[in-house]
Amino acid sequence: MTDKSFLCPDSWTRAHYERCSESLNRLSSAEPTHLIRALDDYRHALSKAHHGNEFLDIDLADVMLAGLRVAWAGVDDLAPLQRQWLTLATAYLVDPDDHANDFTDLSGLDDDAFIVATTLRAIGFDDHAQKIDEALG
To answer: Alpha helices of the chain — where are they, by DSSP H?
Structure first.
């Protein structure tokens, strides 16, 4: 049985939560404006890395980034716990060296896709989560 004494989307394990928390701790700020700017910086870094690694799934990254941007645009309508989940998922995505390195590992974005899709689904952005699922194939 999974210990759910920590608060996170239902499909996350304690390990997912801890990895997201570690990513958040590496950020200089968890303020929404900083996190939104971090999404743009991440996309720029991903583009640079793509020049050296043609196997990076830029389309998957763009779908995740779009879903998170839409969620951040509606953040005022989210409950505090949902905002926390959105913050954790954003921090995890923009941390390129989370569970698998986003820029060098062939499946480096797959763990991010799981975190982002499950978070978007948990906070009511099912259509964007579905787009991520479809991009994963």
So the answer is: 14-26, 32-52, 58-73, 80-94, 110-122, 126-136
β-partners of residue 89 are: none
pLDDT tens per residue, range 88-130 = 999 999 998 888 888 888 788 999 999 999 999 999 999 999 9
Query: At 100, phi and psi to the nearest 5?
Result: -130, 135
Distance CA 71, CA 117 (A): 12
Residues facing 103 on adjacent strands: none
User: Where residue 51 falls among pLDDT bands split at 50, 70, 90?
Assistant: confident
Phi, then psi, of 11 in degrees rounded to 5: -80, -5
Cβ count within 10 A of residue 109: 26
End-to-end CA distance of the chain: 29
